[in-house]
Amino acid sequence: MIRQYTQEQLNSLKSGYPQWPPRELAVHFNEQFGTDKTPGQLRSACKNRGFKSGRSPGQGAKDRYLLVTAEQADYLRNMYQAMPLPELTEAFNKKYDQDLKKNQIRSFLKNHGITCSRSGHFGSEGKKNWNKGTAGTGLCKANQGSFKKGNVPGNVNPMYTERLSKDGYIEIKVPIPNPYTSAKTRYMHKHRWIWEQANGAVPRSKVVIFFDGNRSNFAIDNLVLITRRELAILNRRGYFSAPAELRPTIWNLVKLETTTMNKELSDGNKTHRELVLETIETPSTSREISEKTGIHQTQVCTVLCSLKKQGLAKVVGSTTQNGRSLYLWAL
Questions:
Q1: Taking 60 as the threshold, does the pLDDT of residue 42 lie above it?
Q2: What pLDDT, on the 0 to 100 scale, is given for residue 2?
Q3: Helix (H), strand (E) at residue 253
Q4: Are 184 and 175 in contact (CB under 8 A)?
Q5: For residues 36 and 27, what is the distance between their CA atoms, to the nearest angstrom?
Q6: How does 310-320 read in b/e, with b if 16+ C-beta sit within 10 Å?
Q7: In whole angstroms, what is the distance from residue 242 CA to residue 198 CA?
Q8: CA distance 191 to 209
Q9: φ/ψ (deg, to 5) at 170
Q10: pLDDT digits 0-9 by tens, 106-151
């Protein structure tokens, strides 16, 4: 086996690798032994034999000067501490008869980790804050721009302020904690607030409506408490958009329909799940289930999907209603 390096050459590499980066090491090595080794070959030789340079990764690149000589690099490093970049560029070009741009000098300094040790701030040596040590002495008193104790911003609406919601209902600010934001006050529908002041809290299964459809008539006898099932049927029958003379008739028909429905279902307080299960004893569409129970069709579909996952309901066919294809559901 031919040895590429003699023991003398290896000793030279081991001692020279910590002193010079590969490019300079190659120059010294080739001059000493009359070879033509490249920096890459010598780097590989040192690496394969476990020779360490002691330099951190990237340090070799910082030690190589492609733009300037080592002497010029020392000049830039020393003078950058004393003068800003424009003046340093002018002085450097004049001293070494160069024509480097300010951006070239800046890039060189940055790439080689050379800093000026200046913060860029105005000096504060010898200055003293005029109010230092005056805390609690009353020297700095409140002025026109200071917040005062108990101050309330001018954009805070007073209690019982009213506003119009995007749905056309009047809302009122009331002293009731907001369960969503933890605020001490909240806005709620004015007609509901008035009804609750007279009758107590509205149950979750019921709502307060305007009997005459006028959202500005807050007379207590015009605010009626109904079930959500009745509200669904009223909306389906077009109660609130019907002429005033037809509303009493629609109202009575809806009341009769819901009374009959409750008797058929035996219990008006049954859950949506129980109502849907009783309705699909005969195959029905989600629309038919909604009309029979008064449950919104979207909620009916949710219940049906839940029952299907549990194996309590299934699709047994389909039918067409008003040009739409609907599934038939059954137990």
A1: yes
A2: 46
A3: helix 247-265
A4: yes
A5: 9
A6: eeebeeeeeee
A7: 29
A8: 8
A9: -85, 125
A10: 888 888 888 887 777 766 655 677 777 777 676 677 777 777 777 7
Strands 206-210 and 223-227: antiparallel
Query: What's the CA gap between 26 and 12, in Å, rounded?
Result: 11
The 8-class DSSP code of residue 221 comes to G
CA dist., res. 248 & res. 232, Å (int): 17
| Phi-psi category of residue 39: left, alpha or beta, with phi > 0 → left and psi -120 to 50 → alpha | alpha
High-pLDDT (> 70) share of the chain, %? 89
Mean pLDDT of 227-256: 87
200-233: buried (b, 16+ CB within 10 Å) or exposed (e) per residue?
Answer: eeeeeeebbbbbeeebeeeeeeebeebbbbbbbb
3-class SS of residue 115? coil
Confidence of residue 62 (pLDDT cuts 50, 70, 90): low
Measured CA to CA, the distance from residue 250 to residue 291 in angstroms comes to 15
d(CA 85, CA 91): 10
pLDDT at 164 over 90: yes
**Where does residue 311 fall: left (phi above 0), alpha (psi -120 to 50 degrees), or beta otherwise?**
left
Token output for 55: 């330099």
Q: Which residue has the tokens 């934001």?
A: 181
